[in-house]
Automatic annotation (TrEMBL):
Organism listed in the record: Salipiger profundus
Keywords tagged on the record: Isomerase
Protein's UniProt keywords contain Mitochondrion: no
EC number per UniProt: 5.2.1.1
Name of the molecule in the record: Maleate isomerase
Domain of life: Bacteria
Cited Pfam families: Amdase
A Gene Ontology molecular function term of the record: maleate isomerase activity
Enzyme class: isomerase
InterPro entries noted in UniProt: Iso_Racemase_Enz_sf, MaiA/AMDase
Length: 254
């Protein structure tokens, strides 16, 4: 039987409240054109993904990345105030490396009710642990100081990056349009540079998702990307089962 509205007079339509879907949050860079669509492809349909945006520079430098920290809390505060999240992800690999994992988590947790906060750096480290990877080939789109900081953070987590290459691009508008042929050539070059156990394509704005299965077949290695590991880690933290369509060895690792 339908429930009457509180006035009991039947002047408004009666309704019942359905069960809440598992809530996941995503804080996306203002300049990012890629991650939101990728996450909706990767997450199960029953997950309720809510997205907010944080101001970010048109060019990626250590300074523009660091500046995002001051806006993270404000961006997270734009989520519905009554929402309870299983996990919230900050969708920026290099931004996390520059700001620091604890600072990202603190800014978001201070204003949102969530069980967990993650980002591509913590997600990548967790993925490497799950796959038993300690030697990682790394491809970055960004300029040298930005890439160097990410490599240093991975080294602190005892993940070596003996094979590395970058497109040396600063403009986000260009990063989002680096084509699959360029990614393939970069992947083959880095994989041949030194013995590695997996390859990582860094940057949430890089269009990598569709390229992962073919690269894994060609290289015979797990190929990871920022958006893939972030979705995988968010689902793990939230206790959600990845959909069968999720690409890559990572989702088959158990």
């Amino acid at each position: 039987m339908d429930e009457l509205t509180p006035d009991g007079q039947g002047t408004a339509l009666p309704y019942r409240l359905g069960p809440a879907r598992p809530a996941l949050g995503l804080v996306v860079l203002q300049s990012d054109e890629t991650v939101e669509a990728d996450m909706r492809r990767l997450l199960p349909q029953r997950a309720n993904l809510m997205v907010s945006r944080v101001p970010s520079g048109a060019e990626v430098t250590p300074e523009t990345l660091t500046a995002m920290e001051a806006h993270l809390g404000q961006a997270a505060a734009l989520f519905p105030p009554w929402a309870r999240f299983q996990a919230i992800g900050y969708a920026c690999t290099s931004g996390t490396a520059q700001i620091g994992v604890p600072h990202v988590a603190a800014q978001i947790s201070a204003v949102v009710r969530t069980e967990a906060v993650t980002e591509p750096v913590s997600a990548l480290i967790a993925a490497c642990r799950a796959l038993g990877v300690t030697r990682l080939g790394l491809i970055s789109p960004y300029v040298a100081p930005v890439s160097a900081r990410l490599r240093a953070v991975l080294a602190e987590a005892r993940i070596e990056t003996p094979a590395f290459a970058s497109f040396e691009v600063a403009e986000e508008a260009r990063v989002a349009r680096i084509g699959p042929g360029s990614l393939r050539r970069a992947a083959l070059r880095v994989a041949a540079e030194a013995p590695v156990e997996a390859l990582f394509l860094s940057c949430t704005n890089l269009r990598t998702l569709s390229a992962l299965p073919a690269l894994e077949r060609e290289l015979g290695l797990p190929v990871l990307s920022s958006n893939q590991v972030l979705a995988w880690h968010m689902m793990r933290l939230a206790g959600l089962t990845p959909p069968r369509r999720a690409p890559g060895w990572l989702f088959k690792s158990g």
